């Protein structure tokens, strides 16, 4: 499946993107032959028959795990290998935190349905869910700068993933935390609400079920019954959804990465498209496909772990 | 004098709703002593379950509870959830109605029993809790309890799960067990096992039992004292013998009169109670039953009668102004409820052999393939849902098929409705073989002759169609002229006892009994010869059920219909059917005239089935011997070489070795002393 998607993207990319146009309008102008001479060794020359280009590219991946180079000659492999970790650093933490916050709030407001706490939590979530990430990101940047000015030192960095001149384990850790805090906060702010609402409605369904009443009849308090009996069954659909959001984790944070100047996969995606970097675009697509597959497998594993009914004897 | 285990005084429960405040329980008082069983009877919405949940403190937060509930001298109302949870599952245990949903699906049954132990005794060691859980499982009759501890609820059948629920209820030796319709969702043979088990639990723990049910038979079987509830109030309260022998309140009389009896052959119509229970919003100060009561007087409508002692007995109390005039269900020398006339048919004088058959089924077989593998389905075996079933239904006759769930009765019906062609058999409808149907037109013509009424009156009517459209749909399908449809719908509404003026309403505006009447009207629209009834009354309350049964009886006589009736309720079958077949694992085990089969059951399974049904008469009930079958229905995927009933057969246990071998190896055929009453047992 991943192989098929990748090949399809390669062909589609060639239909829409034209590396040659990168050189149009250069001063001094380059001749056709000069452009061809630049592109040809990078396997990006549209004068070569498509089938031949494709085979060169595909065999490179198959035999040398070489995903090609960009029009400027950078290795796609290097780019992806580097940016993957930047994205993971940002997104894994944010996803784990926003899922945890969303589920916790869901449990809180489901067990206090229609009371003040539930109303406030729901109202807040409706507002945060509707804040565009751009507004949230820039708002946080302003707040952080104001904070930095107030305390008189740079507590939060508003751009980049790390400072260039930090070494040693603990300084690096502190430096990373200073950089990661703001984009993570922005992502959590706009993302947690979906899990809050999902968890709340699923839990409300299970709270009314017979087995939760049965658990209370056994002598568990309402809170114990909810935490132990209702939560686990209602977590099953939430887990599936979280697992399937994994591909989005790596490629979806385009805006966040741009605002905070993180050179991650999302930013790479936009960059490759605008620069007619066919090999790069295809690599991003392939990466997304692999992540979707990983997500599906993780979802299955999680469901099997949580739900004995689907375990195959 | 000892203090009662549970003492309830003037309990009231109300809920807010959009229509106003719903008074679900309005003044319930009773005492329950150690080792005694209190039966609370009533129809849906009478407040019986709400009463039990109020005692447990498990009502929703928006419920307002008043009065007093004293458990072993402590007031339970007003306790916090944390304080109540010390009592729940420890002093008071509860058994819920639906065993399929009352166990948490993601925890093993062992864990769920252990949890009930550890929550009340945090000091108990894991090992001790585990051992006790195994012992409890053994006590409730789960085979190989130590292994089954690790099983999850979905690996258990309904009856087994209810056993686990009972094991959890017994775990901490409660003083009071509340059983809320513990057997309603179960088959009769399993019901008998579970009722026995509740009795065992009561004996083991010496607990008091509150048995909530709608089944008068269950009450007669288990209870010492009975409360009959109606519209949130107890309307009659008495010791069980007294209540059944000297019923005072017209509603209780009606409830008893409306139940068909499995042990009586008489063919008199049931006595339905007219109308339906009132909504519990803004009740006027009047007897809530007055609108449905045949002997109501003006005074009944001016104030609500109190529950007072009647007949000079302090323990028999009834809420009826005329209770003193009523003796044992009779007033002024006649019955409280006028007995409807018995409809008689001219067809009944014609001997059965001379009547035309409307349906002939010969060697009906249906098997489903068992497949394995997720991509390529490989066939690894077959499930025989129906195996070689043959019978016929003649004009003006009701043929009933009875059996437990999974016995194949519904599959049989669906095969007939599908006009399914048989490899080595045939289905003939009014003489036309389904094998001869060529093309859609012939099939549509034949379909006019066979119609079906479904079990669930809610699910079988499209909620977005008016009643007129529901009934007119089959008429339009068969091509009736538009001008004739209207009068015909009115005629049909009238026929089933509904007001034709209501035909522009949607099904949601009708009660369950009325909806089932709409379903019957739809089935009769095409003037069928045969109506197939799939559990038509099992979803209805008893007082409503009687009306529908009487309607079916009357229609059969008036229109000369034949019924093919499928039910698990043998009392209803005895009342309505002329012929009956008992089905077990896809085959008939006994087949004959209804009186012959019920009065002289031959096959051990029929005997067990009949004896398992509690009779609504405490005196008879105590004298009856119950054959309690062990175990569950075997899985249809098992390969059975001989008699399918061997695994549960009480007769097999008494046989010697060569006879047993015969049961195990040879499939018995349907034979009998007469051709008319046959059974599939080697030794009967």
TrEMBL record, chain A:
Residue stretches spanning the membrane: 90-110, 131-160, 180-198, 242-262, 282-306
Main localization (coarse): membrane
UniProt-listed CDD domains: TM_PBP2
A Pfam family reported for this protein in Swiss-Prot or TrEMBL: BPD_transp_1
Cell membrane keyword on record: yes
PANTHER family per record: INNER MEMBRANE ABC TRANSPORTER, OLIGOPEPTIDE TRANSPORT SYSTEM PERMEASE PROTEIN APPB
Name of the protein in its database record: ABC transporter permease
UniProtKB/TrEMBL annotation, chain B:
Keywords: ATP-binding, Cell membrane, Membrane, Nucleotide-binding, Transport
Gene3D superfamilies (alphabetical): P-loop containing nucleotide triphosphate hydrolases (3.40.50.300)
InterPro entries in UniProt: AAA+_ATPase, ABC_Ni/Peptide_Import, ABC_transporter-like_ATP-bd, ABC_transporter-like_CS, Oligopep_ABC_C, P-loop_NTPase
Cited PANTHER family: DIPEPTIDE TRANSPORT ATP-BINDING PROTEIN DPPD, OLIGOPEPTIDE TRANSPORT ATP-BINDING PROTEIN APPD
Domain ABC transporter: 6-256, 359-610
PROSITE patterns assigned to the protein according to its UniProt record, in alphabetical order: ABC_TRANSPORTER_1 (PS00211), ABC_TRANSPORTER_2 (PS50893)
Recorded superkingdom: Bacteria
GO molecular function terms noted in the UniProt entry: ATP binding
Protein name, UniProt field: Oligopeptide ABC transporter ATP-binding protein OppF
Localization annotation: Cell membrane
Pfam families linked to this entry: ABC_tran, oligo_HPY
Annotated family: Belongs to the ABC transporter superfamily.
Membrane topology of the entry: Peripheral membrane protein
